[in-house]
Amino acid sequence: MVSTPSTPARLRVAVAGASGYAGGEFLRLAAQHPSLEIGALTAHANAGSRLGALQPHLRSLADRVLAPTTAEALAGHDVVVLGLPHGASGEIAAQLPDDVLVLDLGADHRLASAADWRAYYGSEHAGTWPYGLPELVVADGGTQRDRLVGARRIAVPGCNVTAVTLGLQPGVAAGLLDPTDLVAVLANGFSGAGKALKPHLLAAEGLGAASPYAVGGTHRHIPEITQNLRTAGAHAVTISFTPTLVPMSRGILATATARFAPGRHADADELRAVWEAAYAHEPFVELLPAGQWPSTAATIGSNTALVQVALDEAAGRVVTVTAIDNLVKGTAGQAVQAMNVALGLPETAGLVTEGVAP
Amino acid sequence: MVSTPSTPARLRVAVAGASGYAGGEFLRLAAQHPSLEIGALTAHANAGSRLGALQPHLRSLADRVLAPTTAEALAGHDVVVLGLPHGASGEIAAQLPDDVLVLDLGADHRLASAADWRAYYGSEHAGTWPYGLPELVVADGGTQRDRLVGARRIAVPGCNVTAVTLGLQPGVAAGLLDPTDLVAVLANGFSGAGKALKPHLLAAEGLGAASPYAVGGTHRHIPEITQNLRTAGAHAVTISFTPTLVPMSRGILATATARFAPGRHADADELRAVWEAAYAHEPFVELLPAGQWPSTAATIGSNTALVQVALDEAAGRVVTVTAIDNLVKGTAGQAVQAMNVALGLPETAGLVTEGVAP
Amino acid sequence: MVSTPSTPARLRVAVAGASGYAGGEFLRLAAQHPSLEIGALTAHANAGSRLGALQPHLRSLADRVLAPTTAEALAGHDVVVLGLPHGASGEIAAQLPDDVLVLDLGADHRLASAADWRAYYGSEHAGTWPYGLPELVVADGGTQRDRLVGARRIAVPGCNVTAVTLGLQPGVAAGLLDPTDLVAVLANGFSGAGKALKPHLLAAEGLGAASPYAVGGTHRHIPEITQNLRTAGAHAVTISFTPTLVPMSRGILATATARFAPGRHADADELRAVWEAAYAHEPFVELLPAGQWPSTAATIGSNTALVQVALDEAAGRVVTVTAIDNLVKGTAGQAVQAMNVALGLPETAGLVTEGVAP
Amino acid sequence: MVSTPSTPARLRVAVAGASGYAGGEFLRLAAQHPSLEIGALTAHANAGSRLGALQPHLRSLADRVLAPTTAEALAGHDVVVLGLPHGASGEIAAQLPDDVLVLDLGADHRLASAADWRAYYGSEHAGTWPYGLPELVVADGGTQRDRLVGARRIAVPGCNVTAVTLGLQPGVAAGLLDPTDLVAVLANGFSGAGKALKPHLLAAEGLGAASPYAVGGTHRHIPEITQNLRTAGAHAVTISFTPTLVPMSRGILATATARFAPGRHADADELRAVWEAAYAHEPFVELLPAGQWPSTAATIGSNTALVQVALDEAAGRVVTVTAIDNLVKGTAGQAVQAMNVALGLPETAGLVTEGVAP
């Protein structure tokens, strides 16, 4: 594309953790974003490597060489993206100027409760940043989007959290669902586990296998889901949360169920009306037509969340299913969306809603 | 192997529906069974075909030609296996002699309640046969195994039903779990859907995709689960049941959760003790060591069910996870096991407990 | 994006066969193309259906209803895309005005030889259109790109053909390779087989399986490869061509080998120099650095072809490997690229070079 | 099974490398073998671990604890299986008594040429043992089977080697094929790469991807293929050999092509007759009916090799395709088969010919 005089200046973005899946996905999206110019790329163990050797799908950046992740390397950019292991963001972020927009793809700044942080992560809390889920309903009015305008620090939500929150929040916000006995089971693609070299993440092990992990209330995304549903209006939240690895590289399918709140009920049409109202104007969340169920395949590469809700009258439960691409709406696309809101760009800039399927 | 004078006579088995996944899997197992001799093989649309063209993995039977499925073709055998679409078994079975052991791999004869049958299957009930889940706890003592000895008609359980029942029944039988608010979500391999030519079952669609089906209380396995848990001692059962297709050909991973029954509680060790006691002597059900979670990969090709149970104190739920091969412990292996019991053969004859992994 | 007075008028495109994989992929790309506006969508068996029910990933078009495929439905557009079974394009195309750009994603108009057409397709030849592979080297100078400028009928190449041609043509065009004993073996994703409901295309069959098809010189892409390599300068071409289905939805990995032409030889560096020169200025074909081999994963969703070439001195063969996304560079992206050339748009408009990985 | 007085004494087998894929697969087969009793299990990095934590599919051995791999630990067995990285077998084997049958699943003792060993493995040659491919045709009469009777050291062949050799050898042995311009391209499951923790072997990378490795004549299986085809009668062998990783855990599909030897030709029927004659009496190699092509799925878990051959008259090449399970006929099943021959047991003891499909 030829730049014309009226083209706005590009914003320079640096990515720390450019060799990882989260950082790589941000770069894929950034390469299509009309307002971004890709600046410094850094890594830890992979510093000194050519990006093309590590992320061969990022063709236009193949010859970039990764610098070590330091505040110096990240200086001089308008936007800095941190795709770092949890615990590593705080120190780097503290060294960046206040007027730089910092997007933390990791968990460090998501939780408001330092106690929760310590309980689930076992380290000191780095502090709390504005939470980057624009669609999150805020009980006292509006959405989290409003709180992101002008923000210069954004904690990008967890992938599982995004899927479960988007599925359940309309009913929770409406007081229709009982948030004290939620049950969520997820099918997760392997990229959600990152590039860690662990035996159970090998292809030979994962192909043809489904297996759960972090069962029994230990997963670190639990307090984040709880926090979100409280933001949406729940007084107390308890959730049984079980992720399962299944043989796909991307995608989360979250099945989350709830009973009606005491004294509340809705028939199937009323139920759909609540979800429809919640997402009617959301560009990236779509309630599917009645009877059509989400497939992760339809979301791959896109920032779309597909949601469905149904009533199981006999079981006394509302069943919601949400499909997202864990690396896009679950991570890097969410970051771009939140960045767009923070910077006053069109919220959909640089993002697509069409998945790469089949 | 050369037959010696002391070798017991082989039992002749006929398989109706030999071109389908259930019938084919029975044949795979039958080919290894020390007491079976494979007789007539029949099919409907595929009658006249060479088995090797349809089931190329069944090498020793490759040159067999499929006969049309009729009572005549199935006559003269000691055991008849029906791997037919639901609704088709009743008529054939009625024409077979009473002293022939008939194993129905389909649903027709599983439900005791004709009303349930009509509600979920929409046709006339074919009647109820002894239910072929040997490990099913019977509230008034013993297991379903006892009821199978000498049986000549056996309704082989549904695959999802087997996984969910084995996961939950120890706690239900012990009165520890509240059976009125169960939630089960399953990851299912595609062979569970059979060989039906439907667009969503195409490989191009299924590879890289997770998607739910029969959501909201409509799945036909629900009344069968309910029936089993009642047999195990529950007075009333309600279950939210959601299966999801994931990209594997075989395997079911069932995550089933429950709250404690009113007034009951157990810590993690007590919980495990209940499950351990239930399955300590079962050759095909294994409670994994604490902290190790089932993977479907470990069960492929075997008649093993791997079970784990954990307590999520914060969520107030007990979480059970069960992995099986849907075609073995979920269908054909279960049938062999039940047949062994019925005929007085060693229960493990012709079955293996080691999965084909990775 | 808001249209400003200086925005060029959008070109209206109609897609026949919008429910298939090829048509669907063209729509996915068209939705991102700055100069296209999506008009009529038609189908045959699926006429009357909502697109969202058939192609749930095409969110922005979900509510479009498919019209029957007729010349009337396709009238009044600037561009018409035909994603039809072979044999069906000719009749429709004959009814479209000469000044409409028609892109045939099917095979009908690719072959110059009516005899080849009859031999491989067994029907009457519909005629020959300009061949839509812009990078195809033309022996008497330039590339096929030159022949596409201003074209109003374009035969979009076959997916396997694209991969094999791009791998081998630099060496063939340079006279370095002997084109009379080529051997190509391909790993193919299932979407290449379309949405046909055939047993061997079921997910249960395809997951965990590799199997060849059209072995022994029967594949219809063979005369098209031959034609291309003749265009690139070969006097005679013979190729052993074996595609194999492997468990992925998208992607082609083509391994194509050749001996040196009589009297010719090159060392590894010289060899690379030939390929480098051929593709140095091609926006969508990339020769990877020495030692790095193409993976289909790096191309998914993009119009990129990744190519590598190596010398196996001991075997006396040059080995080339090419990876593409069969639905993008192999079909719909190629069509967009050729359309861009034909219409004088930037060749890369609406296409990306970054794959969706992992 | 109850042991009767007439039951022959079990042979005690020790497995070194019991935590790897090759060792694990041998154990899976050994657990079904009527004449084996499983003794010591050893490992290197995993010594001290419970086998159930590493190989959860080997249920009957779950509580075994792995000893360090030493000659002492392996002493006192009738059979010792070495599933060790190449280079490690020689030293251990030298410490084992001559009358113990040692099966080396690794490469150390396969090559007769020390020069080839050094060229491809870069270390000192450990010596040459009888080669454990019973079906290998020996040019001066008979098969390799004859040389294995009574052997006490056996080098178990490489997985790729087995597939390529079985595909090509009938034509080579008959002098029908020209062995000096062979081309083989393979689709390989990930278990062939072992449990090594390397980034490209991660599930996130491997799912949805096809990619080649060891391209250009560098793969260590090349001299072994060459050696085999010389044994079968070729005077000189040159082969272009390219393996490709595809998204499956098990299986090799080898497409191997050759031209006719100078002055030789055969039509399709004559061609098939040669292959048919070669394998008519082989229990584990099956030439499929004309027109049916091998799928790896049909071989999983079995010791079967499915072979097909076709004539591509236009290309002037014979195309052979062979499917095996790389861990069974490619490794551990082959070892059991060779062991059976060496010890005078029925060659098929403990092995199945039916694959686990779908």
TrEMBL record, chains A, B, C, D:
Species of the source: Isoptericola sediminis
Q: Which reaction does it catalyse?
A: N-acetyl-L-glutamate 5-semialdehyde + phosphate + NADP(+) = N-acetyl-L-glutamyl 5-phosphate + NADPH + H(+)
Ranges of residues in domain Semialdehyde dehydrogenase NAD-binding: 12-144
Q: Which Pfam families match?
A: Semialdhyde_dh, Semialdhyde_dhC_1
Q: Which family does it belong to?
A: Belongs to the NAGSA dehydrogenase family. Type 1 subfamily.
Q: Which gene encodes it?
A: argC
UniProt GO MF annotations: N-acetyl-gamma-glutamyl-phosphate reductase activity; NAD binding; NADP+ binding
Query: Where would you find this protein in the cell?
Result: Cytoplasm
Instruction: Name the source's superkingdom.
Output: Bacteria
Q: What name does this protein carry?
A: N-acetyl-gamma-glutamyl-phosphate reductase
Extract the InterPro entries matched here. Answer: AGPR, AGPR_AS, AGPR_dimerisation_dom, AGPR_type-1, NAD(P)-bd_dom_sf, Semialdehyde_DH_NAD-bd
Pathway assignment reads: Amino-acid biosynthesis; L-arginine biosynthesis; N(2)-acetyl-L-ornithine from L-glutamate: step 3/4
What function does the entry list? Catalyzes the NADPH-dependent reduction of N-acetyl-5-glutamyl phosphate to yield N-acetyl-L-glutamate 5-semialdehyde.
Which residues catalyse the reaction?
A: 159
Question: What's a BP term from Gene Ontology annotated to this protein?
Answer: L-arginine biosynthetic process
Q: What is its EC number?
A: 1.2.1.38
GO cellular component entries: cytoplasm
User: Which HAMAP family is this protein grouped with?
Assistant: ArgC_type1
Enumerate the UniProt keywords alphabetically. Answer: Amino-acid biosynthesis, Arginine biosynthesis, Cytoplasm, NADP, Oxidoreductase
Which top class of enzyme applies to this chain?
oxidoreductase
